[in-house]
Amino acid sequence: MSDIIQLLPDNVANQIAAGEVVQRPASAIKELIENAIDAGADKIKLIVKDAGKSLIQVIDNGCGMSVTDARLCFERHATSKIRKAEDLFAIRTMGFRGEAMASIAAIAQVELKTRRIEDELGTVVEIEGSKVVNQYPEAVAAGTNILVKNLFYNIPARRNFLKSNSVEMRHIIDEFQRIALSNPQIFLSLHSDGNEIYHLPAETLKQRIVHIFGNNYNQRLVPVEEDTSIIKVEGFIGKPEFAKKTRGEQFFFVNKRFVRDPYLHHAVMNAYEDIMQAETFPFYVLFIDIDPARIDINVHPTKTEIKYEDDKAIYAIIRSAVKRSLGRYNIMPSLDFEQETSFSNLITKKSLDEIIVPTVTFNPDFNPFDTDKSKPSYSRSDSYAEGFAKKTGGIPSNWDSLYEIVEKEESVQLPLHSLSELETDHPQVIQMEDKASSKLFFQLHNKYIVSQIHSGFILIDQQAAHERILFEQFLTQLDQHKGLSQQSLFPQTIDLNPSDNELMKDLLVDINGLGFQIREFGKNSYIIDGIPADLGTGFDEIKMIEKILEDYKNNQSEYKLAKRENLAKSLARNAAIKPGTQLDNTAMAELVDKLFACQSPNSSIYGNPVIVTFTLQELAEKFGKN
Fold first, then answer.
1. Does the pLDDT value for residue 407 go beyond 80?
2. Whether the predicted pLDDT of 151 surpasses 90
3. Contact 59/111 with Cβ under 8 angstroms?
4. Considering only CA atoms, which of 287, 294, 290, 292 is closest in space to residue 308?
């Protein structure tokens, strides 16, 4: 039997390695910019076309490369960062494996232009599929200019797995933001299809955060600083009231390298315990400076995972540092033991018998429209009550009876005194009677609707029911693009960050199909001319759009929903009535009728029950009856 094991050709091996290093255009951008940072550049310009599929260009003013280095950098495991295995535990640079350039050159058409400051001429190297096509000297600017064209051109199957331009652009922006946050001392710019997305000058970390996420973050940041013998922690965290339901604004940097660490994230979340709403995530940008000998970063191809020598100590330090910052800036409640008590002696204590309860009196014969000047008037020294008493006029008595509450109302609030001994909250059921409906509904705590059926009664979650109704209605509108719109009296302008702007571009047609009237207005800005007529009035258009985008991202990461289903679910959740909304019998009857007209009335949009049935037999068993 002949031998079956053989060495793979270099081009095949490079393509396999490229699959680990370069998953999408954002991966290639990360590697190229990190190389520019390692080269000592303080100005880096990123240019992309078609979300990086057609062109990725990185221009820097770093040290540049010699003729030999320009050719050698495309070889596998060729690097200037390390020399021996022990250097892996003393790494301060971003790259060290020497695989990035070889991987990119294996799956794209690459053109490299580079020159050292001391050289008169630079070098141009052209490579396609790991093969050097051309190399020649040329007068180029000092630094490095690398162009990556037609990514995955020689692996069509891999290229087909790429998402839409808007999705890939959001990944590019995410990577760009991480690099920009970890290097605020470097000028960075991002251009996409001829438009400048970011223009970030060299600045402080706080200024960089504000430039990336918006001016409203300036008032949300709380500084964190802790220096120990194990690690040094510094950065900013967000105030708990601004926590969001979606992840994505949580950044850990270890020795300026972005890492994903659920264990350290739990330390931050633990510090926010009891001062933040459930299922929300605070903003934080935290930098951990640690001796490279205490960590191992060579555990994952993307270098976003790190092993620590003493992770429990690091957990405790981060938790205490965040907790101390929250307390130091009066975010957390605290007891003031140094309260000024000298003013307490100025208060004269009186017995309860000496305290006179204030009363209000009025003259039932007072007529504010009486203009007869011959009648006496009260003086300034008179009290209002005495002045009103002196007024006389020819008006009917008991005029105040006009403002008595009319007894003939359609809704009456009836307290269930019989249940007050069973529950400490003294629950109340609002009984509504409507002449137009023969059905009788009860509203429990302004959250649930109770309706009697032949075998017992049903309990309906009014918010979940309304969400189900709106969800199916919005899905139909998206399919037909026939959402009715209500024109806004005063159009609103909303400014989005670049990441949300790319998402908005992708969803704009479908959002307008729901009944919104939104149009682009300059860079990252949109004008809201109208909202869906089904939403009624009283909605803040800007907050509504922000919540829709936030819920959309949350649904996308958690449930992996299709675009239209995700959008309909996000809008339904934000437009539905909230717990605590009081409904009359007509509104409850309409809600129940629409619910049972839905395709899935028993299930909420998140898979939870909407209707719970209680039978007479179950009630009898509760009272010990058979």
1. no
2. yes
3. no
4. 294
